[in-house]
Specification:
- By secondary structure, the protein is mainly alpha-helical.
- It is built from eleven helices and seven strands.
- It folds into two domains: about 80 residues, no CATH class; about 160 residues, no CATH class.
- Strands 5-7-6 form a three-stranded mixed sheet, sandwiched between helices.
- Strand 1 and strand 2 form a beta hairpin.
- The longest helix has 18 residues.
- The structure holds zinc ion.
């Protein structure tokens, strides 16, 4: 997800609508930089699941520190916990852990360590079914390995620029605060490819089907985001597949019941 756009003078980060923005690959990959770092890209590609989890733990903690988290038992916290009831308590072997960030930004994301963050701005515009559909989509990016890939790319770029990868060690997970900040920013703002976005949509649909929960919310969530697209300016509409197409795809699956 995460294409930034202006909405009522706020810089908001979109949820699903921005997901397909780049139409191929993860954002911000600087091939020249990776080449110059000599082998860093290879190391990044070989980050183990444990490395990815460790760095996700750090990135999640860094992000939490920078954001205002809804207090336990607060309205938002209670609602989020209610909405995610039924989802598996683990994601790729990691225990899921949900928090609400109190911000007008419209966003949600998940990391490979089970860290799932939902912004109050998104919660304000979505009903429970829609919210569940969006969260399922974000979980899909983790379950399907997209976030791991995004982490590897972010690490390669960060390591290339900061020489973290030039130490000869297999992987440097002990990043400096600024490196970690950069890495965190990159993961949260990772842009997934069109194929990845569609796959995450289908993952969410399949999960909702399995849980016997309302799937129409995934359609109306996209429709709401499509409206945001239009209202927020043409740049949002460059996202592929468009929110409208994605809503139609899910509606088709509902109609065909498969
Ligand atoms: Zn996405």
């Amino acid at each position: 997800m995460n294409m930034k756009f202006k909405l009522l003078a706020l810089v908001a980060t979109t949820a699903l609508a921005g997901c397909g923005a780049a139409g191929g690959g993860v954002a911000g990959v600087n091939v020249d930089g990776m080449m110059a770092a000599g082998g860093t890209a290879l190391k990044a590609a070989s980050l183990s699941d444990t490395d990815v989890k460790t760095m996700s733990d750090d990135a999640c903690a860094a992000s939490d520190k920078q954001n205002k988290i809804a207090a336990p038992k607060s309205k938002y916290d209670v609602r989020l916990n209610k909405v995610v009831q039924g989802f598996s308590p683990s994601l790729n072997g990691a225990q899921t852990n949900y928090r609400v960030y109190m911000t007008k930004d419209v966003n949600a994301w998940a990391m490979s360590n089970g860290c799932i963050r939902v912004y109050s701005g998104l919660m304000d515009m979505m009903n429970d079914s829609e919210l569940r559909g969006v969260i399922g989509h974000e979980m899909g990016h983790v379950a399907l390995g997209h976030t791991k890939k995004a982490m590897q790319t972010a690490y390669a770029v960060t390591a290339a620029r900061t020489a973290a990868g030039a130490t000869g060690n297999a992987v440097v997970t002990n990043l400096s605060a600024s490196q970690l900040g950069e890495l965190t920013e990159k993961i949260i703002n990772a842009q997934f490819s069109q194929v990845q976005e569609s796959a995450a949509d289908d993952y969410s649909f399949d999960q909702l089907t399995k849980m016997n929960m309302d799937r129409k919310g995934l359609v109306t969530a996209f429709q709401k985001l499509a409206k945001l697209d239009g209202g927020a300016g043409a740049s949002m509409l460059s996202s592929h597949p468009s929110s409208t197409d994605r809503a139609q795809h899910i509606q088709q699956r509902i109609d065909q019941n498969k």
